[in-house]
Amino acid sequence: MSRLLFETFFPSVSHRITSHFPSVYRSIFSEETATACPLSELQVNFTVASFVIRRPVLFASALLGAVVGFRGAIRLIQCQRQGVKTDERLLGYIWALAFFSFGAMNVTAALLHCILPLETEWHVFLWAGDCLFTGNSSIALIVASLYVQGKRSSGAFVNGKLCLHIVLVIWSLAVALTRWTLEDISRPTLPLELWYLLVTLVVPIVSAPYFLPRLMQPSNSIARGLVGASIMCLILVPLDGLFCRCLGNDTIYDAATMPALVFMACALSFLGIETILNVETCTQKRTKDH
Q1: pLDDT for residue 176 is more than 80
Q2: From residue 182, how far is each of 62, 130, 131 by CA, in Å?
Q3: What is the largest CA-CA distance in the chain?
Q4: Which of 32, 153, 265, 272 is within CB 3.0–4.6 Å of 227 for a Cys-Cys bond?
Q5: Vertex 118, ends 21 and 177: CA angle to 5°?
Q6: Predicted TM-score (pTM) of this structure
Q7: Distance of CA 233 to CAs 132, 180, 227, Å?
Q8: What Cα–Cα distance (Å) separates residue 125 from each residue in 12, 106, 132?
C-alpha cells in the first residue's frame, strides 16, 4: 500500500531511487509487503449513493489535518487583529498562511488518495495542488521561524512586510512552476516533487531553534505531548513491513502504514505548533491588554 502511494505521488523520485539505489528501495518498499498488504478500502453506503474510501485511516488523518490547518489559520488571524505592532500582525499572517496551505494540502490529499477514483482526469491537478500547497506551507513556516529567530536573537530590526512579500513571491514562483508542469504532460515532474520534498525536509531544521525551547516551558505541556506523539508516529514509519506481516491487511494495519502515520504526525505537529503560538502570542497579548 505504501509503495503504491509513493510511486504514484513521486514518480520521478521513485524511478531515480530504484535506478541508483535498488537495494535501498526494496528494503523500504518490499515486493512482499506490497503483495501481502494491498490497498485497503472501506465501502460506505447511503440511501441515495454509495462510494469507496481508499486508505480509510489516511482519510481520517487528512480530515484531521484539514480541520487543524483551517481552524489554526482562522484563530491566528483573529489573534493578530489584537496586536498593536504591525510587524507582529504580519508575522501572524505568515503563520496563518502556513496553516491555511496545510489545510488545503490535506483536502487535496484526501480527494486524491482516498475519494476520487484512480486515474481520473482530476488526478494530475490534485497531485499538483498537493505538491504546491505542501511546499507553500513549508516555505511560510521557514520564513516565519527565521523572522522570529533573527529578530529575537540579534535584536536587529526585521521587516515583517519584507518577510510577507518574500513568502508571496516564492508562492508565485511555485504557482508558475505548477502551471508549467500541468501545461504539458510530457514535462518532467521532478521539480514539483522536489518542491514538496526538499522544502518540507528543511522545516524541522530551521524551526527547531525557535520551537524546542518553548516546548520545554511548563505552559506548553500539551504541545509537548502532541509533538511527542508526532515523533512516535514517525519512529513507527520504517516498521511498515513488519506491521504488514504481523497484523495482516486489515484496519489495524491500515493505521500503521507509512502514509497514515506521516499524515497523522503532520497533523499532530501542526496542532502542537498552534498550541505554542497561542501561548506565545494570543495569550500574552490578552495578558498585556488586561
Answers
A1: yes
A2: 24, 13, 12
A3: 63
A4: 272
A5: 65
A6: 0.89
A7: 24, 35, 10
A8: 17, 14, 10
DSSP at 283: I
* pLDDT confidence of residue 24: 83
pLDDT score, position 175: 94
* Ramachandran angles phi, psi of 173, nearest 5°: -65, -40
Position 156: which residue type? Answer: A
Of residues 76, 56, 75, the one with CA closest to residue 64? 56
Nearest Cα residue to 106 out of 44, 58, 168: 58
pLDDT tops 90 at residue 135: yes
| Count of other CB atoms within 10 angstroms of residue 210 | 18
Average pLDDT over residues 73-84: 76
pLDDT given for residue 101 in this prediction? 97
The answer to whether the beta carbons of residues 257 and 58 sit under 8 Å apart is: yes
Cell of 12: 520521478
What's the pLDDT tens digit per position in 140-171? 999 999 888 876 665 555 667 788 888 999 99
